[in-house]
Amino acid sequence: MAVPPIATTQSGDLPRGNAVVGQSGGPTSVINQSLVGVIEGLRSGLHAAGVVGRVLGMRHGVKGMTRGDYFDFTDTHQDRLDRLACTPSSGLGSTRDKPDAAYCERVLDACRKGDVRYFFYIGGNDSSDTCRLVREMAVRSNYDLRCFHVPKTIDNDLMENDHCPGFPSAARFVAMACMADFMDNISLPGIKINVVMGRHAGFLTAASALARRHDRDWTSEGIDSSDGPQLIYCPEVPFDTERFIADVDAVYRAKGRCHIAVSEGISDSKGTPIGATLIKNAQTDAHGNVQLSGSGALGDQLGDLLKAALTPAGGKPPRVRADTFGYVQRCWPDPSPVDQVEARRAGRYAAQLALAGQHDGSVSIVRQGSGSELWLGKDNGQPYLATYRRVDLSAVAAKTRHMPASFFQGHNNVSREFIEYCLPLVGPLPGFERL
């Protein structure tokens, strides 16, 4: 997880002014690690070189910046920064604003007013797009503003990244929650549905497979296919309600119980979200999407579907329960150790790009050693290793990465390739005894 050295430019070639850093989108367990990484990189680099005067934090992202609402990190003690780095959620506050041209003009005006020459934004693809728009507007205005995007998203859906800061910790939560929930399902058998975040990308739902025992031999049906969740549904694979009912019925008949992980974004073969089909009078967000993460409606509707279909004539319906993990996945205070280190180093790398004289860019995490064989109980694999590189903002901005086909096994399971991809990221998982 080394940060490669970047050749620095002469400080006289860099614009002099202040630096701002902000956080955008959903908070995570490690987004403050990235924030502190940027601050540390600036204070030891551009600030130390006399290029940057003040290091300012935007409160609630660009929304706060347009109001002149900042936290001054220039002289914040390192002990406080270290505590902040280990604190889940967005320490500066966040925003869901997606700036258009007029909004970006206000951001640029705030930069001029505050003599800001270095702009760092931590977030997902919309945050990268904000960096791109602000940078392009600054170029057209002949204002020398350097703009850098630091990746963050639990959905793991940023292009050009092997994985994104925030995802490993959320994946760890999903895996451990499903571990415990499966043991509950064994104790009191029934049908259990867990709805996991992920409107367009299924990485987080797929991480539920890590709840299965991975010390067993891999078979054509997966790792110990009796382990839960036995059925995993991601948005990349079309969801068919009749096939879903048949899948659950087959497992339930064989085991007397069934454990299921479902992405909130499952859609049919036409791309219509299942939530929009099943949930009556559903609320929508500012972008017209059916509210899923803050609601248990999808799980309840899938549960009602199963009860209606699997109740024998004149008999009792099966015991069906559903939970929606929702926002609790984002900031659980047991982050992945890998995630903590990588998030902080991603922030530092962004500051190094500025010190090297780069005008803009997005930080990309690149995997160089898999580490998967070691995690699967063997000793002939390469140790896990990730490094960083700069990519163009346009390569990440407003784009969505999906799980590759090789990560799936059929329509309701993940492949060994996904397990090997994900295991090194989440950190050690507990092992439970079974009778």
Radius of gyration over alpha carbons? Answer: 23 Å
Secondary structure tally, helices:
13
Q: In which range does the helix fraction lie? A: 25-40%
Shape designation: elongated
Give the structural class.
Answer: alpha/beta
| End-to-end CA span | 40 Å
Tally the structural domains. Answer: 2
Q: Ranges with pLDDT <50 over ≥5 residues?
A: 374-380
Q: Please report the first level of CATH classification, the CATH class of the largest domain.
A: Alpha Beta
Main β-sheet, in a few words?
A: 7 strands, mixed
The number of strands is 13
Strand order of the largest sheet: 3-2-1-4-5-12-13
CATH architecture of the largest domain: 3-Layer(aba) Sandwich
Overall average pLDDT: 90
One letter per element, helices H and strands E, the order comes to EHEHEHHEHEHEHEEEHEHHEHEHEH
Approximately what portion of the residues adopt beta-strand conformation?
A: 15-25%
Q: Oligomerization state of this entry?
A: single chain
CATH fold-level name of the largest domain: Rossmann fold
